[in-house]
Every structure is written in C-alpha cells, then in structure tokens.
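Example record

One chain of 693 residues, shown exactly as stored in the release files.
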Amino acid sequence: MDPKIQELLAELERERAELDQERQRRQDAEAEARSERRRREEEQQRREEEQRRHEEAEALAASSESSTLPLFLHACHELLVAIEIVTDPTRTTQGAVTRLTNRRVPSRITLWDTFTEEQMKAADLNPGDQQSSVEPMVGTESSTGKRMGKKNKTKKKKITMIMGGQADRFCIYHQNGDEHIPALTIEYKAPHKLTRDEIVGGLAQDIHPFKEVIDKNSDDSDFCLKQLVTAIITQLFFYMVVKGVWYSYVCTGEAFIFLYILDNPSSVMCSVCTPSLDVEEINDDSLHLTAVAQVLAFILRALVSPSVLQEWYDAVAELGIWPVEYSDILEQTPPTARQKHASPLYCGRHPSKLPPFQMTLQPRCRPHTDIVPRSRSPSPSMSPPPSPLSPSARRGRTVNARARSNPDQKSSKKAQFSEDSDANWIDHAAEPSKIKSQPYCSQQCLLALQDDGPLDTSCPNYLAHLKRRIQTAEFHALIREQLSRDRGPDASCRPLYKKGSCGAAFKIHLLSHGYTLLAKGVERNNSHKLEHENEVYHRLHDIQGDYIPVCLGIVVLDSKYPYYYDEGVYTHMLLLSWAGKPISEVMKSDNSACVIEMTSQSLQAIHLAGVLHGDVEPQNILWNEDCNRPMLVDFERAEMRNALSAISLNLGLKRRRLGKNRSTFSKELSKAQISLERCRELLRRNSASKFKE
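Predicted structure tokens for this chain:
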C-alpha cells in the first residue's frame, strides 16, 4: 500500500481515537455532573428532613412545656372511666384461682383513715424543677426466673419493673447502680372475682382475721364479704412479706386496695379507692383522687421507703397460718351473699378540703438521683398514723431487747408480735448502717486468715484485726452467732441486691475483729450446690487471691434465724473475699484487648488446676482493682477434671483423656473470648448511641 495512504489512515485512526476519548470524557463529566446533582438533591432532602424533625421536636417541646400533670391526669381519667369493666364471669378468660395454703396472715387489717392526706404529701417527693426523659427503663423477669435485659446495664439509678411468678402479679424495683431493691408489689384481680361493692362491704371496718374469719362459718352477707376480702389481702400480704416491701396494691379495674404493712408486721393498713366514683368532677380539688394520681403518689412513696430488717422477717415467721384455699372460700360462699349487701353501696369518698394539686410535668425529666432507699421504716403509728413521709415517722423500731436475748422462749416471742403488741416496738432515732461504707478486707488479709499467716498491713481494716488473732473455725462460729442476733437497724450484714441462678450476695462485717467480706447465700434446697462450689475453691486454693476470690468455707446459719431477701430464705453462706466490680465497667475501646487477654490468663490458670468453669460469661468476670486483673467467680456449675499441668505416665487411655480435656478447656477459653468480644461490641454501640444523643 502506498505509504501516503497508510499515513492518512493512521492519522484518521488517531483522530477517531481522540474523538472517542473526548466523547468518553464528556460522558464521564455528564455522569459526574448528574451524580453531583443527585448528591446535592439528597443533601437538600436530608437538610429538609432534619429541619422538619427539628421543628417537630421544638413543637413537641413547646407542647410539653405547656402541658401540666393536672392536664395529663385529666386525660387519663377520661380514658379510664370510658373503659367497660366486665364483671360477668361468662365474658372473661379463666385463670388460676388464688391459693392461700400455709400463708402467713396478719392479725389485724385496719382502715387507713389518713391515706388521702398522706398521698397529697407525696407530691413533695417530686419537685417541679426536677429534669427527666423517657428512656427504656423496663426489664422483665418471667416465672422461670430468667431476667431479660441484663447485659445492657448502666450506672444510672432507674426504676425497673420486674414481672415474676404469675401473669397478674408484679414487683417494682428501685435500681440503684447495679442493686435491684424491691419497692412495691402489685396484683391485678378480675372484677368478677371480687366486685367493687364486695370490696367496700368487706372493708367497712377493721378486721381481726383469727377472731372474725378464720375457722368461722356463717351465711351472713357481711361475714362472707369480709372472708373474701381477707383472703385477697392475705394473698397480697404474703407476697409483700416474701418480697420484703412495705407498700402494695390490688387493682380490679374499678377499685384499688392500697396496703401498707407496719413495722409490727402483724398489722396491715388498707384504703379502698374507686376513682370513677371518687371523682365526680375534674378540678384541682379532685385530681389527686384519679387512678393515675393515686398510683403515681403511692409509687413515689414506695420508692423512698427503706429496706425491711431481718428482725421484721423474724416477726413475720411468728404470725399465724391460714391453711385454706381461695377456691374453697368461693365455693362455700352462697351466691346470695355476693348479691345481697348488708352495707350500703359505696358512693365515693368526699374528703375534707385539701390544697390544690400543684405538681407539674416537666419536659425531658430525668429521675432524681438523690432519692435512695433509707435505712429504716417510715411506719405510721396506729392512732392517728402520721405520714410515712414525715420526719417523725422516719424512725426505726427495735424488738424488746429482753425478748431477743432469750430466743428459745418461742411462746413469749409469739406474744411479742401478737395483734396487741405495739407496746413492744420502741421508737428510736434512725442512724444509717455503717456496713454499706465499710471497706472490704484485702485478698492477702483473708488469705492470712485462711492459712494462719501474718496480717496484711495494707488491709483497710488492719488495726481492727490486731485485737486478737483468730482461726477459721472460730471465725465461722463468730459469724454464725452474730448473724443470729445482729438483725436490727444497725445490723452488720446487708444484701447487695444481686441474685444469681441459685444464690444472692451479702456483705458481712464481723464486729468483734473487723473482718469485712462477701457471702454467697443459698436456700436449703441448693446447699449441695454451695458444697460443690466450696470443693472447687478448695481445688483452686493455690490461685485464690490472684485469679479467683479467697474462699473461707461455708457457714450454716442457725435454723431459727435464716436470712431473708426477695422471696428467698437463705440458710447457708459461702464466705468469700470481695472480687471487684463488673468487667463491663472497666472495658474501654483502648483497653479491651488487654482486658480480654488478662481474662484469658485467669481462665487458663483455672484450667491448669483441672477445673472447667462452665459459665464464663461477663457477669461472672469481675475486675479487681487491688490485683489489677480480672477475677472469675460463681463456680456452682464448674467441673473438676485432670489438671492440664499433670504429667501422664500412661501413653494410652490417660493420654487420650488428657487430650480430650485440652479440647474441652480450649473450647471454653474460646467461648469466653467470644463472649467478651460481644460485650465490648455492645459497650461500643451503647457509647456511640449516647454520643449521638
């Protein structure tokens, strides 16, 4: 081909390529322009959406600022009175009947005449300048005892609703840090099982169950209603005492029975409220009688109430028993007695003139962090009962010292807590218990007690230990004796309000020698698990105080004086050193890898001793600041195997078993690391979520 033609063709090809490149550049530029235009549009839409949300938030805030609690209560009351209350049993679902077999019964059920006035004073507990926001504050616990929402705990003091036992029974807990303190119990009862008029008729006057109801028979209408009401109150009374709370209420939808147990638990005070009848017209003088206002004030009072004392539980144990079931009472009650009422029908309460309800609902309120349970009971006296909120009522009570000094005289103790035994309860000024602030003994201190070694001079309680050296056997005897007699307001043992699968934690201070430590308490039916855990600690003796707590053995409490806490009757205690705080509180983004590695080292030390933990979850890993490392706790599920450090002389079966152990231990180590990684990721997400807020 002619060279000139070839040159022209080449030039043409170059120009075509340049045109293609230019066309591609234009297309790329157009695509980029379209993409940029789309990004600008999306950004504009995002800004508009943010502006819309901001305006909605401002509007909501403005609406909240203009809203007051009275308006809220008014709206709630209108909604509640519009609800149809079904009293026809044929239109209701059927559930289990109330069972009262072998439940403790109060000796007196008295009318709470000053209830309304005391409810009004509850407004003082919620000052108007208090800030609060609506946050997820509810955890649940099913009847199987497995609490949901445990992993996402914070240091904030919150109110947690726990559901346990039955679908119609609840307990409100006051969460103080990682302590869950029972505050109030609630029960819902179908209105056809106990109507409003039956409640009012049955509680027309004080009731003495053993004198007027129990083992008595009559077809009289007043007696039948009194018997039904006594059964319902006894059921809730028993739930209150096993939970260890002063306050409770029953709701049927059309009526409330508010209960308060006195310091002398043989007496319970009751007040009947029927908001639909009590509130004839919504105004400042009647708002406090609405259902929501009554419940709100009642819960506020319960949340600032102190914990009950062990001597209070001892008094409950001396109360009489009603061996009957509610279903039997219903069957024995003539239908005519439930239809015919000797007492006039309730027409609503009309209390004397009270100050207007002035509590206001503030926007974005946060729970008050200063409200914590006090150390003593706010019991009102019997005639007339002062407000449980008043300073005069925030006093302690103690049992007659002479009666306590001779616990074997059971008959005298029964008389002490009879229905006429108010004189045996002596008021005295309440002082905060010192046990809560008492520092724990060091690991080396309790190791010295365990092994009869030299005292640890760095222990915060060192000076108290100098009085006289003791050995473990005497230590056990002193602890047991102290726990049987030291059960008043200044008791040197308190629950830490933490429960595991079969036990609860207590803090104990031995007054005579100053030792302060932890105790894991279990009920009698779980004592074999505690024995097993004690054996595991014995196997791990060489690493106690380093990778696990120091274990000082088991104390079996005096059978007459077990320790009571949240439905549990604890008879055996495993004495341990304080292991530290939850590992989640020290895990940060910059140290989590180190924490996980140190936890692995602690677990490997346990494995080398031939122990498989069996439950290596974050809640069983604590950070000990003195040792500056993680400690593992709760060995009730642990298995003791051949130690990995042991040298097998048999090349056959023993070697295969050792290899199987290594595989099992490796799996547990890997599982623990994965669990901590999940914990770290959860903490990271929570931190990021809070940062965005």
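Notes: The two ends are 78 Å apart (CA to CA).
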